């Protein structure tokens, strides 16, 4: 009987390491790929070659990451502004500017750099390795350099997708009580506690938070006494059964509400005057002036600042054409 042929011995294959997941343990989006040439520059600190920082022009192209960091910092500003602009279409310039500043500040950029463990790969002079890698400025510059490399490798679209995802993992203003991420296009209803503890329904629709306005107390001033005159001190105009505070502030509250609805910005100027030779508070008067776009739309003078402001508010309502439904 012929011997059985020996089984072919398969060559031993090294088990390949699993591919890195797209999302790391911290929930951050994966780092976009960059070219090898740029990668060397990104992770090279100027101390490695003893670069002279005072020279404006080098004989050859610098090998450190400073130039990439400058490019990345500029692009980051643009990308963050664009992402906020698209994600929050109803927010005003001031809010967008504040949020942009929060995302591009050194503290935040350095935090992202540490989250990706980039400083551990930074090549420095051996005498400065520890101090450079722990430096917040160096950490932020390293991340900005990586942004610059992504921009040169993949362009703005790749960079916008990465930075946008990174911003939305931060929480505020995406995951907090402000506005939802645009990926969450569903409609949800939840309760938000106001400063006074009252429950106010908040409607979340496609990343825009719509908060119903708070209920105003007797905005329209009915039941005023027949002898009411805004030119009298407020204490003399409060004989109505309506609570004093509601009656006295009727015109001012109306002005604030209706001006806000029409996005009219009112700026107030106040001046106090005292009769010559008098020290009595009864001889002092306040003059309040309401201005819109630099023009006076209402002015009032009374013994108290609040009374003068009420008079000016009444005039402003008429000047701006907002006095419909207000009794004289």
Structure write-up:
With 328 residues, the protein is α+β, with helices and mostly antiparallel strands. It has 3 domains: 36-52 and 60-168, Ribonuclease iii, N-terminal Endonuclease Domain, Chain A, CATH 1.10.1520; 185-213, no CATH class; 234-319, Double Stranded RNA Binding Domain, CATH 3.30.160. 37% of the residues lie in helices and 13% in strands. The protein contains 9 helices and 6 strands; from the N terminus they run ααααααβββααβββα. It has helices at residues 36-42, 66-87, 93-104, 106-115, 129-134, 136-168, 244-248, 250-261, 305-319; strands at residues 187-193, 199-205, 208-210, 267-274, 284-292, 295-302. Strands 1-2-3 form a 3-stranded antiparallel β-sheet, with no helix packed on it. A hairpin with a 2-residue loop joins strand 5 (284-292) and strand 6 (295-302). Helix 2 (66-87) runs antiparallel to helix 3 (93-104) and helix 8 (250-261) crosses helix 9 (305-319). The protein is elongated and about 120 Å long. Mean pLDDT is 72; it is low at 11-25 and 176-249. One of its GO terms (cellular component) is nucleus. It comes from Botryobasidium botryosum (strain FD-172 SS1). InterPro entries: dsRBD_dom (IPR014720), RNase_III_dom (IPR000999), RNase_III_sf (IPR036389). Residues 31-155 form the RNase III domain.
């Amino acid at each position: 009987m012929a011997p059985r042929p020996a089984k072919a011995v398969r060559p031993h294959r090294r088990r390949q390491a699993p591919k890195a997941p797209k999302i790391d343990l911290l929930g951050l989006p994966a780092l976009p790929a960059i070219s090898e040439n740029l990668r060397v520059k990104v992770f090279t600190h100027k101390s490695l070659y003893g670069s002279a920082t005072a020279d404006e022009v080098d004989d050859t192209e610098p090998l450190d990451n400073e130039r990439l960091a400058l490019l990345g910092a500029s692009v980051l500003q643009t990308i963050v502004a664009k992402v906020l602009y698209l994600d929050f279409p109803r927010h005003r310039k001031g809010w967008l500017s504040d949020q942009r500043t929060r995302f591009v500040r050194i503290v935040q950029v350095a935090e992202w750099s540490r989250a990706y463990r980039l400083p551990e790969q930074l090549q420095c002079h051996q005498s400065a390795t520890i101090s450079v890698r722990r430096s917040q400025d160096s950490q932020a510059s390293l991340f900005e350099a990586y942004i610059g490399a992504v921009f040169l490798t993949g362009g703005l679209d790749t960079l916008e997708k990465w930075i946008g995802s990174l911003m939305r993992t931060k929480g505020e203003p995406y995951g907090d009580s402000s506005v939802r991420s645009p990926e969450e296009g569903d409609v949800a209803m939840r309760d938000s506690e106001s400063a006074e503890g009252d429950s106010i329904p908040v409607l979340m629709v496609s990343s825009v938070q719509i908060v119903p306005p708070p209920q105003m107390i007797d905005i329209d001033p009915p039941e005023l006494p027949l002898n009411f005159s805004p030119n009298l001190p407020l204490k003399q105009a409060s004989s109505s059964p309506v609570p004093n505070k509601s009656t006295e502030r009727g015109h001012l509250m109306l002005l604030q509400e209706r001006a806000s609805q029409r996005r009219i910005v009112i700026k107030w100027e106040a001046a106090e005057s005292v009769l010559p030779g008098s020290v009595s508070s009864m001889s002092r008067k306040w003059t309040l002036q309401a201005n819109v776009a630099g023009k006076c739309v209402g002015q009032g003078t009374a013994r108290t600042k609040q009374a003068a402001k009420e008079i000016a508010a009444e005039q402003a309502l008429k000047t701006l054409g907002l006095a419909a439904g207000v009794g004289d």
